[in-house]
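are you around this afternoon, could really use another pair of eyes. what follows is a protein written twice so to speak, once as letters and once as C-alpha cells for the fold. i want to understand how the C-alpha cells follow from the sequence so walk me through it. anything you notice is useful, everything is just below.
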Amino acid sequence: MILDVKATNKINGEVISYKLEGDADNGFLYEGTHMQEVADNKIREVNNNLILLGSPIYTIKSGETAAIDHMTFDIEITAE
C-alpha cells in the first residue's frame, strides 16, 4: 500500500509532503529506508508521530483519508 502523507507545521505553516510504501504488518518505507531511520529530521519527526499506538496507518484502507492532530503538526494520510 502507498500512503500519501501531508504534514503542516502549526508553528511556521511549512508543508511537508511525501509517500510511504509498505503495510502495517511489515512496516513502511520512505524511499527504500525504514520510516524510523530516515535521515531528514522533519520527515523522521512526522514518521515518529505516525507509528504511535492508535495511529491510522495500522487500520487505514485504500481510498481512505485520516487525520492526526499533533502538538507540532497537522498530519493528513491518504491511502492509495
In short: The longest helix spans residues 41-50. The radius of gyration is 12 Å. DSSP finds one helix and six strands in the chain. The helical segments are 41-50.
